[in-house]
Amino acid sequence: MNLYQILQEKQWVDLSHQIDEHSPKFPALPALEQKDLFTLKDGFHVQQFSVVGQYGTHIDAPIHFVEGGRWLDDIPLKDLLLPLYVIDKSQEVSQNNDYILTREDVLAFETQHGQIVPGAFVAFRSDWHKRWPSYEQMRNLDDKGVQHTPGWSREALEFLIHERKVKAVGHETLDTDAGVPAAAKGLVEEYYLLSQDIYQIEVMANLDQCPATGAIISIAYPHWRGATGSPVRAVAIF
């Protein structure tokens, strides 16, 4: 009961977008479908949802890109409740939609806030979530169909994974990779990240309401069997 009381006194922030059939998504994926199977006229209300795993705010397991990688049900429960670090580059992104978070950005963050502890969740705050639910603004295409969106650099991911031993990372955009390099080379940083046997949360919301340090992130999703990803309800508590 003491733990419950402590948590009730904390601030809780929803890090997930609400989703429906109009929600922005990777263009090759179908939209969510929702229908009533029974209504209260039948005595009870039951709905059916059809949705892909990588929809809205969602988790990617390593198997999403990597042969032999872990499935969602291989991720330990304790790895879904982690210290949360929020690296805020929203100012830079507002001035340059193609901004790529660097290793130097991580080091500068640590100079100000202290070293990131092993087993942490590190989120890239870009304030891109404020573009939701506009499909056009989330993708931000130019006249050649290239996305102009921020993303992670390989050097930042390598540093966080191998030097700081993080459990997971997250971001507000639809992809790990920035849009311009992804158009030329594909999602190479997403492949790299998942190949290192860590998971990620994509399309996060409300990171601007979270402190840089001192919060924990709780991530929940159905107990799927053999899933590569799933929509999640992620919550920051501080």
Fold and architecture overview:
The chain has seven helices and 13 strands. It is an alpha/beta fold. The strands form three sheets. The protein has a nine-stranded mixed sheet with strand order 1-13-11-5-7-9-10-4-12. Helix 3 crosses helix 5.
Proportion of residues in β-strands: 15-25%
Strand order of the largest sheet: 1-13-11-5-7-9-10-4-12
Categorize the overall geometry: globular
Structural class: alpha/beta
End-to-end gap:
18 Å
How many helical elements?
A: 7
Short description, anyone?
The protein is an alpha/beta fold and 238 residues long. It is built from 7 helices and 13 strands.
How are the secondary structure elements laid out?
Layout: H1 2-8, E1 12-14, E2 33-38, E3 46-50, E4 58-60, E5 81-88, H2 90-95, E6 100-101, H3 103-113, E7 121-125, H4 135-139, E8 151-152, H5 154-163, E9 168-171, H6 179-185, H7 188-195, E10 199-202, E11 215-220, E12 229-231, E13 233-237
Parallel strand pairs: 5-7, 6-8, 7-9, 9-10
Antiparallel strand pairs: 1-13, 2-3, 4-10, 4-12, 5-11, 11-13
Helix pairs in contact: 3-5
InterPro entries: KFase/CYL, KFase_sf
GO molecular function, one term: hydrolase activity
Enzyme class: hydrolase
Keyword list:
two-stranded antiparallel sheet; 7 helices; 9-stranded mixed beta sheet; EC 3.5.-.-; hydrolase activity; alpha/beta; Cyclase family protein; hydrolase; 23% helix
